[in-house]
Amino acid sequence: MAAGGPASELIMFIVAVIIAGSVAGVLAYVTNDIAHGINDRGSLLADQLRTDFAIINDPNSIPVSGSGPYNYTFYIKNIGKIAFPFSNSSVQVFLDGTLVPPSNLTFTDTSGKGINSLNPYEVGEIIVTRGSQLPSGTHTITVVLDNGKKRSLIFRV
User: Fold this and answer.
1) pTM (2 decimals)?
2) N or C, which end of the chain is more exposed by having fewer CB within 10 Å?
3) CA atoms within 13 A on the CB side of 95
4) From first to last of its 157 residues, what are the pLDDT tens digits of the chain?
């Protein structure tokens, strides 16, 4: 029996090394996965911090043209550090809490030319087309970019 003791101890040592190696491998994988998740989240947050805009209309004087349909013009200024998509497929507009259909939105630069992105410090226009005139009183427009950044403006008609 004396000869069986070292053999069983050797087997137990080998099993312990295999288990320790497996646990170390799993911990390394989990740690690596967490590190990649933190890196991805940090990149997304940095992108959101570099993206910013403002609705720069005078809230008491919103430009309107037409006599049915009516076109309301809202000026958007990119005050961030990077360009962002600026089109009816990447920007959502809410008027008094109701989503404006993309077909009723036109995105242009200040000279009226269609654009697809807004560079830093540039001003673009969102023209909201409505079949009827907004009733007199206070209204709210909310503009939401594709990364979730949003701004609102309370205005009077």
Assistant:
1) 0.73
2) N
3) 18
4) 455 677 788 888 888 888 888 888 888 888 888 888 888 888 777 777 788 999 999 999 999 998 879 999 999 999 999 999 999 999 999 999 999 999 999 999 999 899 999 999 999 999 999 989 999 999 999 999 998 899 999 999 8
Going 74 to 103 to 66 to 85, the CA torsion angle's sign is positive
Task: For residue 77, give both structure tokens.
Answer: 């200024």
Asked if residue 132 lies in contact with residue 116, where contact means CB atoms within 8 angstroms, the answer is: no
